[in-house]
Structure formats: structure tokens, C-alpha cells
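Input sequence (86 aa), recorded before submission:
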Amino acid sequence: MRTLAVSFDEHGLVPPGRDVDWATDLLYVLLGPESWSLVRRELGRDAPAYREWLETSLLASFGGTPQTLQRHPDSSTPPGTSPSGS
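Predicted structure, C-alpha cell format:
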């Protein structure tokens, strides 16, 4: 997660007054398997609802735009998720 946080920082996505440590912690919370389990199993949301929640949370936290989260042209997997869907 730290590598991703450093990349976000290098691209100016870490908000003013925050640092790479903050971004790393936030990414662990948002992208961790516990969050997937909470949203999917405990709250009963389906995969599209989880993706929407994750995208909204990332955009709100890092001030990006939907284009910031565009998929890599060689991948069908959204950034920050694993190909297995977990």
C-alpha cells in the first residue's frame, strides 16, 4: 500500500496537510479484505455497490476525478482491486 501511496503523492493526489503515512493508512482501510467483507457480507452489498463505494471513497479522500481511476488499457481489473475480486 505504501508504494501506491507514494505514487499518489508523486501525482499530487495526497491532500495538503496530509502525507504518505496518512495515505498508506487510508489505503489499508479502504482496500483491505476486512472492508470488502464488511461491505459485502455484513452490509449485504453486491460487487457493483462495493466498487461504487470504493470509488467514491477514494475520490473523496484523494481529490481525484473519475478519470484518475480509469482502468489500465491492458487490464479489466479496476485499480486497487485484485483480479480474484477479493
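Checked by second reader. The chain is about 55% helix and 0% strand.
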